Amino acid sequence: MAKLYFHYSTMNAGKSTLLLQAAHNYRERGMQVMTLTAALDDRAGRGVIASRIGIAEGAESFTTDCDLYDRVVAQAHAAPPACIFLDEAQFLTEMQVWQLARIADDLGIPVMCYGLRVDFRGRLFPGSAALLALADDLREIRTICHCGRKATMVVRLGPDGAALREGAQVQIGGNESYVSLCRRHWRDAVGDPSVDASH
User: Fold this and answer.
1) What residues does Zn(2+) bind to (predicted)?
2) Choosing from 88, 94, 166, 176, which is the catalytic residue?
């Protein structure tokens, strides 16, 4: 039975690298895949999945008003994909995550989503929240904090190098302004929410 997968992590954990490798493995066995990425993320160019280690490939881009189920059905008439790979999954809407679940359930095509779990404020992205609720299989991609512990959070640094506490959830580009940290060091950087909430 096909499943909806969510591979999640913080910044710089290698999500896009793993996606590109998995897609390559399918193609190497003569299987067709469909790759998608958020139109919002155009750091490497629109419709490009790029890894920080230097590998990249073209992909179809999606926006928040795109019906992913209809798009896959249209593609399947010409050449049914053996698997769908979707990068930047945090930018999905809740409805789009339901569409991906329907692709797995009704069309029998596995869907592999890769994305961030939380933003720099420690809050879930809408797409990530829906995937955590609906995905059949959750897989954490691990990276480490400067202390050696598992990094589960990310901070966004301002021009002065200090961690920001507020701002837009999405900021495309500026990868150097993000740092992955363990929860303890994230709290040290932005302030402890449990202490702030009591004042």
Assistant:
1) 145, 147, 182, 185
2) 88
Q: What's the token pair of residue 7? A: 């591979």
Tokens for 149? 């512990």
Q: Which of the residue ranges 8-12, 83-87, 155-159 has the most confident prediction, judged by mean pLDDT?
A: 83-87
pLDDT top residue among 99 and 174:
99
The dihedral over CA atoms of 44, 52, 35, 15, expressed in degrees to the nearest 10, equals -140
DSSP 119: -
Q: Which two tokens stand for residue 74?
A: 């249209």
Label residue 35 exposed, middle or buried (CB < 10 Å: 0-12, 13-18, 19+): buried
Active site residue 88: yes
Range list of H helices, 122-163? 126-134
Which residues sit in the known binding site for ATP?
A: 9-16, 87-90
What type of residue sits at position 190? V
Question: For the whole model, what pTM was predicted?
Answer: 0.87
pLDDT confidence tier of residue 149, bands split at 50, 70 and 90: very high
The hierarchical CATH code for the domain 4-142 is 3.40.50.300
